[in-house]
Design a protein that fits this description.
The structure is a single chain. By secondary structure, this protein is an all-alpha fold. Among the domains are: about 5-80, no CATH class; about 85-140, no CATH class. Helix content is about 45%, strand content about 0%. The protein has helices at about 5-15, 15-25, 50-60, 65-70, 75-80, 90-105, 110-125, 165-180. Helix 6 (about 90-105) packs antiparallel against helix 7 (about 110-125). The radius of gyration is 24 Å and the shape is extended.
Length: about 190
Amino acid sequence: MDLTVGRPIMEILGYSTDKLLVEARDASPEWELGPTASANPSEDSADTALQRMCRLQVGTRDPPMPEGEADGIERHEIRTALPSMHPTDLNEVVKYLERKIEIAEQMGLSLDGRAKLRAVMRVRVDNFRLEFGNDPPVWVTPMQVRLKDDARPVRAQPRRYSPNDRAFLDRHTAALLAHGLVYKNHRSR
C-alpha cells in the first residue's frame, strides 16, 4: 500500500524532512540515483541525466574559498538556483546600457530624459544583468491588494501586445525556460 502524507502529518508522526536530508548528507555528500549505480561511481559508464546534473550542482554549488573567508559566509547565502560559469562583468553591462541609450537618443529621447536615464544607470548599474547567472534572489515586499467592500468581479479581455513586445516576451520566456527558472504547466487552461 502506498501512502503520501504531507509535512503536518509527518511532524505529528515525529518525522522531519530536514533532519532526514541532513542525515542523508552526512552519510554521503553525493548520491547516485540511477539504476546502474555501483559502489564506485567511476565504474558507471551510462550516467543518467539526473546523475550528471547532480554532479554539476555539487561541483558548482560549493565554490572553493580561502579558509579565512569560509567561516564568515553562511552556506545558504552563497547557494543559488543556477550555476554561473563566469562572473558578471560590470564594464560589459555599462557598454550595453550605453548602446541602448544611444539607440534611445536616435529614436528621439530628450536631453532631460537622457540625463535621467544616465543617472539611473549610474546609481543602479549593479542591478542590471546581460544574462541569467549566479546571483542571490531579490527580496521584494509582498504585493497587497485591498478590495473595496462593494467591489464586484469583472472579466476582462487579455492584453494585446505589439509584435515587438510579443517577440521580446517570447525571447525572455524562452531564456527563462532554458535556465529552468520556469516550467510549462500543461494542466492550465
